[in-house]
Task: structure prediction
Amino acid sequence: MVASDSVRGKTFADEVRVSVDALSSRNDALRGAGNFEQAMRALECFYSVGFEPKALVTITATSLPDLEELLRLLIERKITRINLNGFRPIGRGAGHWEWRANTEDVREAVRRAWERCYPDRVAPPEPEKPEAQSNCGVGSFLNVMPNGDVFPCHVLTEREFRCGNVREQSLVEICRHNGLLGQLRRLDFHSLAQADERVAGLTRPGTCLGAVYAQTKG
Result:
């Protein structure tokens, strides 16, 4: 979930993202038993109440064989806001460079899915890559776990980064300006790097705070 800058207005979230990486068996092998069905129900639930969600698909060499069919399935269910993300070796994938999928194979799977779903429409050009920013956006995102626990991203899920639980309090309370999310949003990566050389990597565009934390904790 990408949170709005203010919690005072009626619109609290800019968008809601639900991770689903492959069809049932491959997805659940990566994310746990039952995850695929839960993700699809969540996407359909948001859509049914008028909030168009975004499917977040992380592509790995393992999930790539399902990509064409997954895209077709999502589009058939009217989930057309889809983010395709290349694998980054962070979190559970740390060190597993072999999980990266071949870029040309990904493009081919996307092309086939488009032609099947929209046979009479020309595929749009690939979007230009946005200019990389130093700060990774931590503090502006929420990662809600199945048990209701809220974390600032899908990598920073250590207990000390738990921001609250949506089954115990409202998101407005969890996202209050003086809470952990607000503190993370105000971080200046350049200042942190100047104060401690161990986190100098934070000044490189596209660097994930979660990955740096994992390398330096303890």
About this structure: The mean pLDDT is 82. The helical segments are 24-31, 35-48, 67-76, 103-117, 171-174, 180-185, 189-195, 209-216. The longest strand covers residues 54-59.
